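hiii, so i know i said id send this last week but things got crazy w the move. better late than never?? heres the sequnce for the chain we talked about at the cafe, plus the structure i predicted for it. fair warning i was half asleep when i ran it
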Amino acid sequence: MGVLKIVVTGAFNSGKSTFIKTLSEVVPIETEAKITTYGRRLKPTTTVALDYGRIRVADDLVVHLFGTPGQRRFSFMWRVLARGMHGYILLVDSADPSSVDEARYVYAFFRRNWNLPHIVGANKQDLPSALPPEHVRALLSVPPDTPVVPLVATDPHSVKSALLTLVDHMIEWYAKKSEQSRHDAVLSSQRLL
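okay and structure toks below
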């Protein structure tokens, strides 16, 4: 049986905990603490270490989901949770343009430290103020070969569709990487001859 480790990351209030709760087939593990700072007006608690959930996406494939804290003061956990990941999902609160700068920071951090397949989820698409996925792509400078998907983290169909988009993207990404490695090995051996 195949096992994948996927990290769900993003800025504060982007929907990471909700995404994992909606998708997980087991009771999720959450590390929530009361908010005592400015974010209190948006929600009463925030993730301080991680969220964890698990889902079987096929008979032979289980995905373990690890959600990161969104606040920079807990960013030391990003590296801890990313260790051994196969890919990641960056969630963006597309209904809150003021959160885009923070999403850009998280995205740059992950791209700088891990060259891995990922997707961007433009969350909260059910709200009238939500930016379309292509606007989110432009604001975050997401590469053209990286999927940016519309998302509603409270909708089970939406989150499963996003996860399956990532799994498909990962299969393609790792196949290309394997092909490139074989090609590089052939070139190296030809140079030795």
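btw The CA atoms of residues 9 and 136 lie 16 Å apart. thought thatd interest u
miss u guys!!
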